[in-house]
Design goal:
Layout lengths: L1 E10 L5 E10 L5 E6 L2 E7 L3 E10 L1
Antiparallel strand pairs: 1-2, 2-5, 3-4
Length: 60
């Protein structure tokens, strides 16, 4: 898996920080979870290969 991101922190007080993070993950392998049924198989869960994301929070 490949991952990249950027983060920023802003002080709000003496021991209080606001932070933001943007990131993206790229998984070269396709991951699927299949369920075997009498009629065949059914995909229960399939992860995306490219997954962007964002975090926003307060750090103490």
């Amino acid at each position: 898996m490949l991952a990249a991101g950027a983060a920023a922190r802003l002080p709000l007080g003496r021991d209080l920080w606001l932070f933001a993070e943007l990131f993206a993950e790229l998984d070269p392998a396709r991951v699927r979870y299949d369920l075997a049924l009498e009629e065949g198989t059914e995909t229960v869960l399939a992860r995306y290969r490219f997954r962007p994301g964002a975090l926003l929070g307060i750090e103490l």
